[in-house]
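re: ur question from yesterday

yeah so i grabbed the chain u mentioned. its 410 aa long if i counted rite. heres the sequnce exactly as i have it in my notes:
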Amino acid sequence: MLNKLKFDININKLWDFFILSSLIVALYYYSFRYPLKINDSDTSPVYVDTPPILQYGKYVIILIFIVLFLTMVIKFKIRANVRKFRTWEIFLAVFLLIIPMISFLFVKNPYLLQVGIFFSILVIFYLFPFSKINVNKINKYILLFILASIAVEIIQLFNFFAFERLPALGYHNSISVRFGSLWDDPNSFALIIPMLIVFVYVGKFNNLMKYLLIIALLFMLLLTQSLTGIATFIVSLPVVMFILFVFTKHEKFLKALKLNITIYVVCLFLFFIFVYPTEFIQKFLSLKQGSISGHLEGLDAFINTGLLDYIGLNPRGILAETGYINLLLNFGIFYLFAYVFIGLSSIYRIIYIIKNNVDKQGLELYYGLLFFLVAYLISLVNLPVEEIFPISLIYVLSIVLSYSKNSIEH
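ran it thru and got these structure tokens back, copy pasting raw so excuse formatting
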């Protein structure tokens, strides 16, 4: 019992240190007028290519955490327990981890490594599952992330207007200046915002704080100028409301769905009457034509391939801006099915967590996870999010947290 207590305390301290130090470093980094703008020099004139040490450094950090975890497991003699899970769940996790690893060994393409590596966390979880989680602590971290993101966004906007300092994805003398807050990556940051908005809306905040945070997050979503992120948010709202109503039969979800559709119809009408004809929107859409064409090129990759590609025997790396096409042509139809199915099964578990814990605290986490998983699977239609860090990591963590139904109040 004492060993188990020490193990939990050590993990909590390690995680606290990791979260807080990451936020402090990020805030310090963005307080400079001219920080490093690292990603891909082909994407924006103010980008430089990410140094290899940083490209792979995040995976080294994850590996260190896994090694520390396993070290504690050995030290405190914690036994593996796979009886809690069904055989197909364990098989899928191992399959999703191993196939990209094998492909990477033969092809040496970083994309292949990035897709599968975080499923190692899921495999370890299946071996050493938690008995409870501290929902309040996770909610505290999410709120801390929201506040830090708003602070960084304000710093980025101040630097832009005061010193003409562009964010990492921006062009001089252009309306195409895209802000990605803490991550400085507008597409991936836009995909986490639906989770954060729902988290705040469901959370136990006073009305003033709730609406201020939601307005700030919506404004930040617009500043990403991510059409995929904005469209994903718009689509995921009615989809989630419909799913929740079908599985829970709660009338509030049906009312929310009807209200959502009504608002969309009115906004769509107003948009095409008053906004779409404006010079700003036309210029904005013209700037997006290159990006749209790039996404459509993925269809050529899908059509002009052979049988070996469709069964995953000819992995080559990123072939399209569409995640589903990349997963299919690099790893095969069975891998694509497994990747989506494990996400859908997690959505199913989270829905029943919500259904069976309506009056309990901490549900904002699960509503947020539900919206994230739905948004993630939708966004794969138009973005290779399966290899975008940290979105791909959060996908795996959401799957892990979907198993925590018996400990929502802990």
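noticed a couple things. Residues 3 and 75 are 9 Å apart (CA to CA). also Confidence is low (pLDDT under 50) at residues 1-11, 29-36.
anyway ttyl
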